[in-house]
Backbone:
């Protein structure tokens, strides 16, 4: 008799399939909106690598946005750096992390 967790209709099987789809999408989907790049990816790069574009919303002159949310994005990127991954791999790890927790 099959274990309940491996039955086709089980919650675990369903969530595993959904997670797989989200991870594939994180890898294959293009960036659909410029706000994803300029409001989160670029500031995350700026915070973690010390270079890159700083949008006017984050600049000290205007300070319309806080770096607190960007720091949450920076956690998987810093983990990737610690593991020795390059910037492209860190970007995909960030997208996979966001796809997993959202």
Residues:
């Amino acid at each position: 008799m099959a274990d309940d967790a491996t039955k086709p209709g089980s919650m675990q099987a369903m969530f595993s399939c959904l997670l797989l789809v989200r991870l594939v999408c994180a890898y294959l989907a293009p960036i659909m909106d410029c706000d994803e790049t300029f409001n989160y990816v670029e500031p995350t790069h700026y915070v973690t690598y010390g270079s890159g574009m700083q949008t006017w919303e984050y600049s000290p002159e205007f300070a319309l946005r806080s770096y607190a949310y960007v720091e949450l994005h920076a956690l998987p990127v810093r983990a990737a750096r610690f593991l020795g991954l390059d910037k492209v791999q860190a970007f995909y790890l960030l997208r996979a992390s966001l796809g997993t927790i959202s």
Q: What stands out?
A: Helices lie at 11-28, 34-49, 68-82, 87-101. The first helix runs from residue 11 to 28. The chain has a mean pLDDT of 87.
